[in-house]
Amino acid sequence: MNRWNPFYKALAILIAGVLLSFSYSVLLNLLLFAVCMALILSFPQKSRKQLAWIMIPVSIAAVSLFMTGFLHPASGTGTEEAAKAAGTTFSSYNFSAMTAAAGSLYNALQLASRVLGFAGLGLLFAFTTDGEEFILSLMQQGHVKPKFAYGILAAFHLMPDIKREYSAAKLAYRVRGIRLPVFSLKPLFASMVNCIHWSENLAMAMESKGFDGDGGRTAYREIQSGRGDLLRAVILIGGVAAGMVLFPF
User: Fold this and answer.
1) H helix or E strand, kind and range, residue 223
2) Fewer CB within a 10 Å sphere, N or C end of the chain?
3) pLDDT band for position 178 (50/70/90)?
4) pLDDT exceeds 70 at position 214
5) CA 126, CA 133: separation in Å to the nearest integer?
6) What are the respective helix, strand and coil percentages of the chain, to the nearest 5?
């Protein structure tokens, strides 16, 4: 996966995600998620701890949608009729297997598995792609203007300075004895002043070095692409399309 050209990888994952949005197959979503996790875990240099932390909000979203689909199914799934047959009311939300209709359970699994399927594709790209290589690939294979691409890179590398500036602004308020709420926006506004100055200086520096998007430029670091990248894209997209046919449910 790390040899896959980042531009073609992003394009293939985007197309696979669009195809997946038309499918409601629980088995396909779970299978795709399992394959993505297996590919991510096959990289020894990737942090298992970081992956575990990211999976916490993903799991919360999946469980939340599962409970939403289970407790509030679409009309016609049979949950209300099953609850009445058991001598209870639908508003009681009886979790026993006797009152839970198979339709509502499958509806909940569909919602939860879709979260896992899309999360698997996103995590696969995030954990197997270098950010700088992706931007360079966008310029060389995606023909994105250098001014726009290097602007993204510059903003990305400015993030540590922005975080440090925000901490300094909060410290300045504490030194003056001003207590701020936890989610106060005052330190953010103070730090954004310097960020605006940095962006102006960065824009002038890029123009002075010829990063204005006009004329051709050579690349010091070339991102290679070949038939193998297209083959991997066809395998991913074709696999999702085949799964939609083989696993309709």
Assistant:
1) none
2) C
3) confident
4) no
5) 12
6) 70, 0, 30
